[in-house]
Design goal:
Keywords: Glycolysis, Lyase. This protein is an alpha/beta fold. Helix content is 49%, strand content 14%. The chain is built from 14 helices and 10 strands. It has helices spanning 3-13, 27-36, 43-54, 57-63, 71-74, 84-90, 121-131, 151-170, 189-209, 236-250, 267-280, 293-303, 310-327, 334-338, and strands at residues 19-22, 64-69, 94-98, 103-105, 113-115, 135-142, 174-181, 218-219, 257-260, 286-291. The strands form 2 sheets. Strands 1-2-3-6-7-8-9-10 form an 8-stranded parallel β-barrel, surrounded by 8 helices. Strand 8, helix 10 and strand 9 (257-260) form a beta-alpha-beta unit. The chain is globular, with a radius of gyration of 19 Å. The structure holds 1,3-dihydroxyacetonephosphate.
Amino acid sequence: MDLDQLARTAAAMVQPGKGILAADESSGTIKKRFDAIGVEATPDNRRDYRELLFRATDAMKNYISGTILYDETIRQTASDGTPLVKLVEQAGAIPGIKVDLGAKPLPFCPGETVTEGLDGLRERLTEYSGLGARFAKWRAVIDVGEGIPSWTAVTANAHALARYAALCQEQDVVPIVEPEVLMDGAHDLDRCATVTEFVLKTVFRELYEQRVVLEGMVLKPNMVIAGKTSSRQASVDEVAEKTLMVLKRCVPSAVPGIAFLSGGQSDEEATAHLDAMNRIGGAPWRLTFSYGRALQAAPQKAWSGKPDNVAVARRAFSHRARMNGLASMGQWTKELEERVA
Ligand code: 13P
């Protein structure tokens, strides 16, 4: 393990003004996104769409530090024969790879899942590293409901995250550790705070037990937010304050950066929340984004599968990337948001 290299990569992933593009939707998830814009989910359409993003030079060069790819994407070539992973590198962003194999039902824990994919992971990491991946991602999913999450599900998921992170670091691949407490449900902000604190404390205990070096990882958590159907939605400032409070209780300052997931927030909410946290300041880690939906919803809609729409889709992507880049420094404003490029 080369700790200097891991720390350098992790620092580059969370550098000021930039964040991570999560373009690692599995074939099932991207089908859902394509269904919504009336595009057939074929390998070529997935390729064309991702090529559109990776060739959006303004967004990629200026606001995107790294891009998470999916297994299919890291092997695909652009229409002119250039590997897609090279397009990401040429744009100045670091290529990464989703390595988990998805959340599967956890026995004896109704309504809960554990993320699978540890078997054979060392060999898959070797291959991905050879293809150009310098960081990886593993997502654990924690549902909030009556009587859940259970201790069983949280510890099983935290253990798998830590095993994955250690295997990554063994091969000088920076692990993005993503324990996502879902926004689904009617729970309030405080319940999300309690669950998130329990999850993060458990994750860091397991990381310690598996000897993961905190300087060489990036945490990708949910923000502390009320459930989607909660009757009391919190203000931007409440979300920012509660999220920082929970993170400070749980995340050692040796971790170089925290790159949030958007998790179903609207584009503007995801940006406003990140901005508010950076305006409060005083955090020991860099706070940035690793958004999937909150970066891609606008370009996907603008594109809608039509080659004629590529330029406008790229502009929509650039705008979102720029707004989030500003938010990562606490410099976003509503006025800039509305002044469409
Ligand atoms: P969202 O920002 O859409 O939640 O996606 C981020 C991600 O990578 C989920 O694993």
